[in-house]
Amino acid sequence: MKSANIHTFLYVLIHVIYTIFEWLYGALVICFNFCHEFLPTTDKSKYFREELQKITKKPTHLTVIFGAEEPPFKELTNLILWCLATQISFISFYDYKGNLKKHEEQLQYEVGLQKNETDHITWHSNPKIVHKNGYLGRSIHVKIITKEDGKNSIVNLTKKLAVFKNKDFSIENFSEMLLAQYEFPDPDVGLVCGQTIRLYDYPPWQMRITEFFKLGSIQGITFPKFLEVLVRYSKCEQRLGK
């Protein structure tokens, strides 16, 4: 058998094995989530407590990247409430199509119906937002990111800096200005919706420390799946270039 044929055969074999493994893993996850829904409430609470104890490191900022999928309000509402429950301070949604931005008021309404009265949610996409101090209860910052917040933001900032020709700007200064423009800290966890990890021109400057996790679809995401991501993240060792 020629070398090229051997390589082709091995490639096809590995691809078939990986496809079967991915299908079996997905089937097991679906089966687990289905069975979990029928557990008694006490068993569910025990399971959640055990999983939460495994989370030794929590993200400060969780970001969700949508591809071709339309952002479903039910699942987005759940993610915001789950972040509140697990004390994640920032959550952002990146919709490069821009459809979610147009319907943000509907998302705010859905979240308002389900959150506790003492919960405080700061919507950074709203220019009329009022930042409250001294509130009690849980709090979270929510932001909707669009394609304009990506590469275009770097281009626009570079144009502004070009005006100050006599001033010495370092990478650190540039990074601080981008952070101030972005408002949120860099995301620690990125949930990518789709069959492959594609970032769709997500703001590139902010991704240096992000751990990405692929979701086949955001539709029907469950709290156990959400906890699974947090547990996997807590086990990641981030060297930050060291």
Structure, explained:
- The chain is of the alpha/beta class.
- It is 46% helix and 14% strand.
- The protein has helices spanning 3-36, 41-53, 73-85, 99-102, 104-114, 151-163, 171-182, 223-234; strands at 61-66, 90-95, 120-123, 139-145, 189-193, 211-215.
- Strands 3-4-2-1-5-6 form a six-stranded parallel sheet.
- α3 crosses α5 (104-114).
- It is globular, with a radius of gyration of 21 Å.
Question: What's the structural blueprint in terms of helices and strands?
Answer:
Elements: H1 3-36, H2 41-53, E1 61-66, H3 73-85, E2 90-95, H4 99-102, H5 104-114, E3 120-123, E4 139-145, H6 151-163, H7 171-182, E5 189-193, E6 211-215, H8 223-234
Parallel strand pairs: 1-2, 1-5, 2-4, 3-4, 5-6
Lateral arrangement of strands in the main beta sheet: 3-4-2-1-5-6
Radius of gyration: 21 Å
Question: So what's the overall shape?
Answer: globular
What can be said about the biggest beta sheet? 6 strands, parallel
Q: Report the CATH topology name.
A: Undecaprenyl pyrophosphate synthetase
| Low-pLDDT ranges | 34-45
* CATH A-level architecture: 3-Layer(aba) Sandwich
CATH C-level class is Alpha Beta
Give the class from helix and strand content and strand pairing.
Answer: alpha/beta
Average residue pLDDT? 75
Helix content: 40-55%
Task: State the end-to-end CA separation.
Answer: 45 Å
- The H/E string reads HHEHEHHEEHHEEH
SS summary, helix count? 8
Strand content: 5-15%
